[in-house]
Amino acid sequence: MIKVTLPDGSVKEFAQVVTPMDVAKSISEGLARNVISASYNAATIETTTELTTDGNLVLYTWNDAEGKKAFWHSTSHVMAQALEELYPGIKLTLGPAIDNGFYYDVDFGEQRITDADFKKIEDRVLEISREKHEFKMRLVSKAEALEIYKHNEYKTELISNLEDGTITFCDHSNFFDLCRGGHIPNTGIIKAMKILSVAGAYWRGDEKNKQLTRVYGISFPKQKDLTDYLELLEEAKRRDHRKLGKELELFHFSQRVGQGLPLWLPKGAALRDRLEQFLKKAQKKAGYEQVVTPHIGQKELYVTSGHYAKYGADSFQPIHTPAEGEEFLLKPMNCPHHCEIYNAKPWSYKDLPKRYAEFGTVYRYEQSGELHGLTRVRGFTQDDAHIFCTPDQLDAEFKNVIDLVLYVFGSLGFENFTAQVSVRDLNNPDKYIGSVENWEKAEKAIISAAKDKGLNYVIEAGEAAFYGPKLDFMVKDALGRSWQLGTIQVDYNLPERFDLHYKGSDNELHRPVMIHRAPFGSMERFIAILLEHTGGNFPLWLMPEQAIILSLSEKYENYAKKVLDLLENHEIRALIDNRNETIGKKIREAEVKKLPFMLIVGEEEEKNGTISVRRHGDAGKSNEAMTIEQFASLVNDEIQKTLKQF
Ligand SMILES: [Zn+2]
Ligand SMILES: [Zn+2]
Q1: Does the active-site annotation cover 246?
Q2: Minimal CA–CA distance to 520: which of 409, 619, 611, 393?
Q3: How far apart are CA 4 and CA 484, in angstroms?
Q4: Does residue 353 have a cis peptide bond before it, meaning omega lies within 30 degrees of 0?
Q5: Is 384 a catalytic residue?
Q6: Collapsing DSSP states into helix, strand and coil, what is residue 515?
Q7: pLDDT attached to residue 326
Q8: What is the distance between the terminal CA atoms of the chain, rounded to a whole angstrom?
Q9: C-alpha dist (Å) from residue 474 to 66, 203, 341, 403, 480
Q10: What would the pLDDT profile of 161-184 be if each residue is shown by its tens digit?
């Protein structure tokens, strides 16, 4: 008798050995048709693997990340088969699934693969797929595996590091590959496949090793999915924040200043400032107090916090003073500084919670190869705050932070999000600092707050930081991509390390609980995501310039200036394009700059005291004549729609 427990807690009993596919069939034929991979007791298995012990079974379809992973990894086998046929003598190395698709690293020897070859490879992959070959795992002895791959030094290296008795090959069609498993039932469900690109990649990521060719591909169960995906890729290119940042003159990178260190241009700085003011205003209402701390701190500060032991070797190295022998580190996080602010005076339970907020710039070393636009940088500003409270206040404080995060998302047009509660990996207790009792308390507080606030959340074991469990918001952008935005983290550890306390109602000293939180995460990364989400068409309240006054000719300069003054009285941010250019050219340039409104002024407008209003992206529509007052109330109505009161 085998007992199989399903994710909903239901238990199915089977008199004889069964496979995941048998279990799926016992539930419904419909499910069985859709199941493409499975895991048993948290280990990835085949849908045909025989279950011989009791355990927990999860069945995956294309809609699950695990299902996609099996689908893409399986396609990499088929692509490897096609490559071997088309380029005899190549050496295969590794071919894993990635977030979007898969790759295979290949040593092509003297042969070359170019864009022109992609089509024939794709065609062959689909031809093989249509033959509906099953993927079958086979155990191979180490000696045999080494013999089979004796001409492939890469596979030989992989096999040498494996233990005899654990080495498996995967067969399909007349092809086999060294593989740990995790495949779809057969090749027949691969209906669409595309090679996306080829790039150089060093064997095992080490530049001392030979450079291989990485062939990137993606595949889908429907042709339409592939078409949609390719369209999405094109749109993502158009919305790339590095491209938009240049076009909108928001930020710049200078090799002379240093890589990964963004320079904010006037328009970008104005955008940041607006975001900061927006959050500061809400935080003030929520009882936060602004603080300011320096960009460096003594090494001892981070030794105390534990950051030095954990990250010191991978950080910017200490700065030494010329005479005193002092050592300072560039501030990698604001928390230790805020702990010392808390320590500046004694507190009673009646004073708590204390909520210290700072737009604090921090510096973290990233390898140059990891840097990417504003999303991976070496210097960035966190919209940071630390809340120091009593254990009894933790639940309420956590809920208040969730309210603030939801307010931020709502005001910036992020409507589609989920939450992830990251807890300990119970099998790895040594990874974490702090007592088990405190961890349990903190984890409970987060989960109950997420539940009470009606968040759509999942719990991820093993994803917690070393010093505490956390809640992360995962936001889906307009292109359907997920971004982690907004972190709330409970910390029982730093209060201990910094010996923080308050006097309780019992007149004894107690430890406060600390919450770290950052709704934006960092200004740099947030603005990058916002740029790609909106394509640069920010919510109206946030646009550095909400309107541009376009004069039909220089004759109307004075009237244009008068309009600008009137708009300023209504707190509308505008600028004037009074150049001696055609109105068509001025409109086209204003469109590229994503200016929400174009206000055209000429003889008629001057005579009537009006403006001719044209919206961004409204090509073909006729302009609307309005008075300044009418336009101002239109702008204010639109702002009220997105920017609610906190
Ligand atoms: Zn495989
Ligand atoms: Zn912190």
Answers
A1: no
A2: 409
A3: 34
A4: yes
A5: yes
A6: strand
A7: 95
A8: 58
A9: 18, 33, 31, 16, 11
A10: 999 999 999 999 999 999 999 999
